[in-house]
Automatic annotation (TrEMBL):
Keyword Transport attributed: yes
InterPro entries linked to this entry: AAA+_ATPase, ABC_transporter-like_ATP-bd, ABC_transporter-like_CS, P-loop_NTPase
Organism in which the protein naturally occurs: Actinoplanes teichomyceticus
Keyword Transmembrane carried by entry: no
Protein name: ABC-2 type transport system ATP-binding protein
Length: 327
């Protein structure tokens, strides 16, 4: 596949009275054509700095960046017309209507004015197009921002928290829109804190922490590389559930007790669970692995400092998931 976006060794340092802070510390990212790519990281991890640097709003200290095969920021004027972007909270003139706002933007950018009703339809604002922006909710303003980024029919669409302020129905519509844009051949780089949505919508992800990449690859690969050792245990009806859990806990198992089952979070060898319980004449009715989701992986990777310089790839499994009780 062709890379639409490439970042290699990107560094950005800020100096203040408190000393030197590395906002980006050798960050790498690749986004392939036609994908919806999730860009994830906790607050302060370097996501917005990366996007602003990519768009020529911040000058990096070092590193290489390319959009559509062109080095940036050197050749940003040549590719800017093929990139649509929303970074941080967009601002609009409150007394203008959405239609007027987009018409002015289209005129300034040399865009066919027929794109205005088309993008309003795409983001679900057609029926509210003649209302002033000051009457819009936060979610509607987000839709308007997305519409403005789509005016140029970009090859690369960069969206920073586009679901901010949307209700569940609006989030679902935004998900459908991103998928439709990708199916049409557009590449979407999506930064979001709604990890469940990222897992549903994205083909691939890059996770950043402390200015460094800590994981990258397809969603399936990232999840597979951090397979959970947690299992769900159900016993035969009438069995003393807390008593059975205590037997395993005494042997070193990390137990979470629920109403009708319990989970073992560190089950390196699930067979030990059935063995220990059977020795007490307690028999297991269900023993099911609990799959890791993107939130689990995200918290694991960003909750502590990277141990290997920050460039851990999807074929490496963290120590936390590699071993476990009962091996």
């Amino acid at each position: 596949m062709t890379a639409v976006l490439e970042i290699s060794g990107l560094r950005k340092t800020y100096r203040s009275r408190k000393g030197v802070r590395n906002a980006l510390d050798g960050f790498d990212m690749v986004v392939e054509a036609g994908q919806v790519h999730g860009f994830l990281g906790p607050n302060g991890s370097g996501k917005t700095t990366t996007l602003r640097t990519l768009l020529g709003l911040i000058k990096p200290n070092e590193g290489r960046m390319a959009i559509l095969g062109q080095p940036v920021p050197q050749h940003l004027p040549q590719v800017a017309g093929q990139v649509g972007a929303i970074v941080e909270s967009p601002q609009f003139f409150a007394n203008l209507t959405a239609e007027t706002t987009l018409s002015l933007l289209a005129d300034a950018g040399g865009v066919d004015p027929r794109r205005v009703p088309a993008v309003l339809e795409l983001v679900g604002l057609r029926d509210r197009a003649k209302e002033r922006v000051k009457t819009y909710s936060l979610g509607m303003k987000q839709r308007l921002a997305v519409a403005s980024a789509l005016l140029k029919e970009p090859k690369l669409l960069i969206l920073d928290e586009p679901a901010n302020g949307l209700d569940p129905g609006g989030i679902r519509e935004m998900r459908t829109l991103m998928r439709d844009l990708s199916a049409s051949g557009m590449t979407v780089l999506l930064s979001s804190h709604i990890l469940g949505e990222i897992q549903l919508i994205c083909d691939s992800v890059t996770i950043i922490a402390a200015g460094r990449r800590v994981a990258a690859g397809s969603v399936a690969e990232v999840l597979a590389s951090h397979t959970s050792t947690t299992v769900r245990v159900r016993l035969e009806p009438g069995v003393d559930l807390p008593g059975a859990a205590e037997i395993l806990r005494a042997a070193g198992a990390a137990i979470t007790l629920e109403n009708d089952h319990f989970t073992v979070a560190n089950a390196g060898n699930p067979a030990q669970i059935t063995k220990l319980l059977a020795e007490r004449q307690i028999y297991v009715a269900e023993l099911t692995p609990v799959s890791a989701d993107l939130e689990d992986v995200f918290l694991e990777l960003t909750g502590t400092a990277p141990v290997d310089g920050g460039n851990r790839q999807v074929d490496q499994v963290s120590a936390a998931t590699r071993g476990g009780w009962g091996q």
